[in-house]
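Severity: low
Component: inverse-folding endpoint
Summary: output formatting inconsistent between runs
Steps to reproduce: submit the following structure tokens with default settings.
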């Protein structure tokens, strides 16, 4: 009970901060977020076969009779996968609160999960509130659901894991085959798992040597070159940032080593992450509140590249709006998920009453520009560009490759009007391959751009 009350106190502060911290215009935008049709949080990414699977939490908005208004509200889990880090498939709901025998079916507390493969099966770990508080206690417990395929169907175990009370499960299997379960409950705990992945094989230990002050949660352990990295969100100041400690053993002792990601500039109080290597690049998956600038219990998952120094320490990950993956030139390229922009280029939601429609780029000063990197023009030369835009003044855009002074692909006149339309224009010869794109306002006037696409 004490743990739950402490967590609630922290999250109350979080809500207050969310109201007080102003949302900085232009800082909420990205090829990130990865999931564009629902809220998502706490991403646990796993490389399974030749695809990346993400097991996130699924934030929904509470309403009277449905969760607690103003608080986290989560009733189920989806799983997503991609083989190119750009196109994500939603495999649908894999576990929901009213289909797990031990979970209180109206608790809306299906918090941060994890999943791991072992011996032909996929083990999905998730915390929630038990309905039988006499047997399992009032705190969060952690259960397991098992599947033969990463996308399920998952069959939940009838009882939670004995001896584990807390949230944010994370599982790690060491090179010798020993599996470990980590979780948080004020402190971060770890224990060995039996080969069946369903029971503890050792007494839980508190992983010490971590900061004593400020909430720690969301453990995620991985190994690289013999170094065990225990990574976790921690409130060093007023909201969470991602930190890490290292050890030469999965249960420590750990040595505090550094910060992986600073606090969110949007004021999102929580962060929760995972770290994977895929096709020779390391990535950090994390969350922010892209689609919900005024309420940080409705979050969205993101990913950015992560780099190590030669001594094994982690370079701070820079949040980008562009995110990861290569974008096909024939896709609708959302320039508002930019890699770089001039200070006078602005971004806003297209429709503030339905933020999932996404964002637009606003250029209203001559030479204002926005750049989107890593666009693949493939093997067949593109011949034309389509631009979905609106201009109340009429305006001319110039499209360049490379950078704001790079070769011109096309100049496109967006006619004066008050409705969105798609303008088509032929382009100069473009070499096949991966390029950076720049969109620049050439004239006076104002233009708003939804996307551009090549054919
Ligand atoms: O998603 C609910 C809680 O918020 C998670 O369990 C924490 O890690 C934080 O992200």
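Observed output (run 2 of 3):
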């Amino acid at each position: 009970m004490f743990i739950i009350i402490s967590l609630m106190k922290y999250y109350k502060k979080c809500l207050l901060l969310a109201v007080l911290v102003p949302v900085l215009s232009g800082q909420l935008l990205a090829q990130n977020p990865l999931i564009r049709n629902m809220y998502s949080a706490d991403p646990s990414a796993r490389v399974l076969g030749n695809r990346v699977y993400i097991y996130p939490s699924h934030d929904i908005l509470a309403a009277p009779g449905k969760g607690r208004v103003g608080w986290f509200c989560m009733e189920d889990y989806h799983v997503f996968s991609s083989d190119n880090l750009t196109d994500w498939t939603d495999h649908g709901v894999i576990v929901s609160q009213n289909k797990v025998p031990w979970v209180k079916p109206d608790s809306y507390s299906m918090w941060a999960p994890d999943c791991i493969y072992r011996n032909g099966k996929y083990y999905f770990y998730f915390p929630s509130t038990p309905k039988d508080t006499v047997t399992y206690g009032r705190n969060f417990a952690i259960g397991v659901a098992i599947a033969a395929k990463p996308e399920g169907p998952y069959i939940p175990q009838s009882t939670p894991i004995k001896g584990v009370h807390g949230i944010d499960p994370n599982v790690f299997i060491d090179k010798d085959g020993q599996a470990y379960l980590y979780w948080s409950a004020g402190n971060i705990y770890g224990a060995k798992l039996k080969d069946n992945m369903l029971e503890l094989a050792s007494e839980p230990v508190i992983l010490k040597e971590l900061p004593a002050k400020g909430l720690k949660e969301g453990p995620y352990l991985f190994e690289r070159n013999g170094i065990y990295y225990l990574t976790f969100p921690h409130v060093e100041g007023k909201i969470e940032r991602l930190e890490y400690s290292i050890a030469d053993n999965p249960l420590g002792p750990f040595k505090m080593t550094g910060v992986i990601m600073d606090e969110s500039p949007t004021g999102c109080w929580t962060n929760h992450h995972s770290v994977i290597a895929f096709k020779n690049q390391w990535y950090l998956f994390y969350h922010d509140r892209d689609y919900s600038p005024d309420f940080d219990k409705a979050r969205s998952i993101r990913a950015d590249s992560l780099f190590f120094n030669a001594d094994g320490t982690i370079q701070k990950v820079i949040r980008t709006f562009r995110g990861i993956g290569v974008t096909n030139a024939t896709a609708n390229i959302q320039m508002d998920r930019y890699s770089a922009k001039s200070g006078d280029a602005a971004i806003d939601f297209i429709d503030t009453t339905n933020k999932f429609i996404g964002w637009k780029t606003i250029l209203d000063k001559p030479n204002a520009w926005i750049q989107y990197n890593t666009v693949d023009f493939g093997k067949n030369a593109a011949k034309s560009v389509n631009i979905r835009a609106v201009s109340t003044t009429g305006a001319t855009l110039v499209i360049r490759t490379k950078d704001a002074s790079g070769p011109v692909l096309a100049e496109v006149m967006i006619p004066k009007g008050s409705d969105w339309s798609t303008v088509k224009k032929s382009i100069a010869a473009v070499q096949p391959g991966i390029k950076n794109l720049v969109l620049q306002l050439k004239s006076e006037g104002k233009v708003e751009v939804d996307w551009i696409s090549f054919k």
